[in-house]
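Task: sequence design from structure.
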């Protein structure tokens, strides 16, 4: 005990709790981070063009994405960075379409690993008739929990709601779930 009290740096880095090693870990998010993630969901087309073209069809289209996050921890409880992603919309109506986008995003850590995720940016989304990819402007809002795996790596599980406005072609709503590994 005396050694740990004399060395505050070593004591603060410890992840040992009353019941052994705790999964919460150090939770110091300051400094640079890099992360990789995956997400799965479904996109809902709120588009007049989609409604005219596919009148009797389901408006939900499965989608998936791979994410790359780069940024920095402003404080122990707030990070700011960029999230770049590449994915696909898989639809039997108009075939697979490429999803490419990026957001400037912030994570606000409320209690331990519980976070609120926000982001604003652009993404390529399918046009309402499925003929091509269009530019969608918007962002996302999410909620999740981050588990520390060791002194510098964390795993986050999150649910998100992504919405993009396509000029002249309505909105694209995408609720999705995801996982992200990050190294601080």
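Answer:
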């Amino acid at each position: 005990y005396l050694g740990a009290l004399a060395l505050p740096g070593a004591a603060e880095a410890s992840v040992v709790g009353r019941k052994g090693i705790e999964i919460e870990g150090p939770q110091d998010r300051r400094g640079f981070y890099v992360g990789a993630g995956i997400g799965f969901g479904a996109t809902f087309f709120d588009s007049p063009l989609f409604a005219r073209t596919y009148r009797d069809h389901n408006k939900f289209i499965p989608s998936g994405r791979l994410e790359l996050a780069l940024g920095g921890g402003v404080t122990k409880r707030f990070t700011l960075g960029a999230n770049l992603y590449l994915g696909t919309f898989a639809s039997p109506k108009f075939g697979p379409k490429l999803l490419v986008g990026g957001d400037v995003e912030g994570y606000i850590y409320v209690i331990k690993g519980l976070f609120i995720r926000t982001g604003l940016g652009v993404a390529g989304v399918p046009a309402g008739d499925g003929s091509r990819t269009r530019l969608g402007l918007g962002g996302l809002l999410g909620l999740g929990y981050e588990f520390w795996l060791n002194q510098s790596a964390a795993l986050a599980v999150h649910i998100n709601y992504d919405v993009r406005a396509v000029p002249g072609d309505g909105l694209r709503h995408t609720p999705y779930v995801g996982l992200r590994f990050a190294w601080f």
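The helical segments are 2-6, 8-13, 48-53.
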